# Entry
Amino acid sequence: MSESAILAAQRRQPHVGPVTALYTKKEMVGRGAYGGVYKAVHNPTGQVVALKIIDLDTPDDDISEIQREVALLSELRDAARHNITLYHGCHLNGYELWIAMDFASGGSIRTLMKSGPIHEKYASLIVREVLVALAFLHRQDIIHRDVKAANILLTQTGKILLADFGVAAHLQANSKRSTFTGTPLWMAPEVITDGKMYDTKADIWSLGITLFEMATGNPPHFGIEPLRACALIPRSDPPTLPDDSDNPDSDENGLTPGPFSTPMREFLAQCLQIDPTVRPTADDLMRSKWIKSASKLPMALLRELIVRYVQWIQSGAAASERP
# Structure
């Protein structure tokens, strides 16, 4: 599906009346800084969507972020074919803004990681699909600026979607950005360093940190106060994966991390080059040995992560999860 069936239906027959008649809101599936995300049904088509419901009685900075996300997503063409969450429209409901997006029933990769880190074979598939999204965005001079496991979604069929464009930005021709934006632990050194300019290569660093996060359970400097982490990142050597001697053997299902391969370590090192001018592009990384090794793996394999998570929930382990 290259465009939203909901938007197409809206063009054929514009909705007149309250938005509550257009969508049937179901259970909450997530919460953000300025609203909740709900599972919902678009009544005219029966399509299940994710409804981001925003309280517009929020600071102006937050409203600007919302406007940026809606504007950017509404102009993207062929988003679904490039692993980007599809925008289905927005509506006012009193002091609320309802934004309809793709519903990914598998949840975020960060949520699925509650049952354990992500084994290398799954990580290679996830990273490959995120690279497809980043290459698409970067060709249009768009920086996502918040790549992390929490913003990577998995559908029930095993499709990966890059989500949350609230801090994404357009680059003008041959330009760079200097705004301190993103989530600190995933930020590239050049984003954190005062006065430095950055471009799409900042997303490549964040992707490397996301790979580290998936492989080990958390990003580097996890647990450190964010401002302290921001001071450490530009002054520290690039993170590396633990030695194999510190890494447990894979279980019989291959669902817990085993020794990390050399191609995976090399891929991470490429992403985490301190100098952004020598950091590869998303297109470059698509041709890397590690990503090519995932070419024969079926995307449906990622459904095993959902099964693992459901089993973890059913085992009662979630009740004892640390905050």
Summary: Strands lie at 23-32, 35-42, 47-55, 87-93, 96-102, 107-108, 142-143, 152-154, 160-162, 169-170. The mean pLDDT is 85.
